[in-house]
Amino acid sequence: FIYVVALTFRAGFGPPPTETEEDTMSKAYYFANVPRAMLTTFRCSFGDCSTQGGTPIFEFATSEGGPSGTLLGVALSCFIFTCSIGLFNIISAVFLERVMNYQQTLELHEQHERLSDKKLWKKSMAKFIDIMVQFHEEECYNTCGATTEQSQVFDHNMSQQT
Known about the structure:
The chain has helices at 2-13, 27-30, 34-45, 57-115, 118-143, 148-161. The chain is mostly helical. It is rod-shaped.
């Protein structure tokens, strides 16, 4: 991707093939050959799109190039926008997806360990049976027409007779 964009910028911003550009304050220097154009394109994709003097390359693209320079400046702007928003968004989305998958795997592993723990299962079943017995006893007392207090007195009297 960067190679294709660098070739396009080399053709648009670079000097004619017969000339060599030695002035570091011109845009032609930064796009003088394909390797230099690739380096400059790579730097621009990360936001460092300026000359050694600190002047933005966009300034050279629009001021020195005329109508074609303006078009190339828009192309450079679109490239930077695509790299900074598009590609980095995809990279962060892939990273986030992998983190979420790893977290889900850990949760499933912990759940499997809890479900295979026999001591925890026995303790939970004992609690469940105790709750069911208490619920059943309350239902039996209430269906006989007696209140809970009367049923407790009845139970106490029955335990003393035996």
